[in-house]
Amino acid sequence: MEPDNRLSTSEDSITTQASHHVHVVDNEETEEESSPVEVSIPIQSAAETTSRGRRKIHKVPSLLRVNKEHLYTPVAVSLGPYHHGRSQFPQVEDFKVEMLDSFVAANAPKDKGFFYSKIFERVDEIRGHYEEGSTDELNDEAFAEMILLDTCFIIYFMKCRVEKIIERLYVFRQRIGWLAYRFVLMDLFKLENQIPLWVISLLYALIFHDEDDGEALVCNYLSKFLKIEYNYAVQQMIRGDENEPPLHLLEAKQRVLFGQPPNMESDPGCLADILKLMKGRQRRKRPNESVFKQLSHPFRSVTDLKAKGIRFSASSNCLLNARFHSYCFYGLLQLPVLFVHDSTRVFFSNAIAFEMSPETKSDLTLTSYVNFMKSLIENPKDVKELRENGILFSRLGSDEEVVQVFKEIDTYGLSSRNVFQDVKMRIEEHCNSKAKTWTAELIHTYFRTPWTAVALFAAVFLLCLTFLQTFYTIRPAN
Length: 478
Hints:
Mean pLDDT: 77
Strand content: under 5%
InterPro entries: DUF247_pln
Distance between the termini: 118 Å
Number of domains: 3
Number of helices: 24
Transmembrane segments: 451-474
Region (Disordered): 1-20
Pfam families: DUF247 (PF03140)
Order of helices and strands: HHHHHHHHHHHHHHHHHEEEEHHHEHHHH
Keywords: Membrane, Transmembrane, Transmembrane helix
Structural class: mainly alpha
């Protein structure tokens, strides 16, 4: 069965409408950002899926969706079978057809049937990545057409943003509307809205005649706003012991965030943290009494830590790269840089749902990171302190909104003791040392503002006067 004949628009109709140069700013980044750096993310090929068995793109459990449907259900664009045809923006579905036509026009004499047939050949393999019974409403022909259109949408969208094709990106925004465009950025990272990466790579190779550039497209799209560069060693670490590439875009982004800092040679700390995490299952670093002591005391917020003389600085983009150094009269907590915007809640919620999915090999790393940040950020003062130290960058309206974002991300009481355990224990030891924190507490209590300092000096001055008056009363000067 051939794809629907309603696909009829050529690429010229997409590009000629924006011959002028346009500068626009979206919700996540500006078009003037530095060129993306290289990120290496291996993508599983179609042949590999048959030899290794097919991993599943699971649905979000109903328990997690209670009062949070908007975090997991796509709004502007539906990708894959779970929410097929349920977009609230019909113009986005129409634009998928135009994108396919643009690719076909650039590959003459190949027609739509050629690309459709290549997807149809793999239809059983692609179905195998989704939960059993979830694709039964679509016959093979309709399922293949859906995957073809959805994959073309992803390729076109990522390619426009990576290559900074301003005219096409402008037309894209104008055609679907700014509101829909805002939600597309979020929908791409929702767990139930994923297409297997090997399918994207397969179709990309057919369209652009390059088997490797499909992987590069995904890597560059992620690196555009994460700006993280990977070498071969870290690439192997991301693959894991069984050399298993990420299945979809959400998993790829999660692996990048917890992979490695921008410069391995100048900042190897994140690699060491990852190695510690990988060894965490084999041994415990602390005796049981230390663990019980840690559990008996809730972790401290940024404001509380500052009162104990702990300073803050940025470490790297790797979200595992948290370190603590204890000195004589102060401590230094280095935290990874985090950008908070309106899609942060959506990404973390879906990434947590992915970590909790069946068959997912996870140490709850991301969930533990979110718990760590939730404990540090309790009020706007905590956000302000992290902002002023270059750790947290927010595109929300206020510090209160940042606090609310973390409060609304539910981790369901799950965490891993292996993640950030050493950092927490060292901080607790520092805070429990009176010798190291007494001076800091004195300064924090009496020198927070000029007025408290003046009050302290006035009190000391009056105390001295009282002492002198008493002394000379008892022993007159003559």
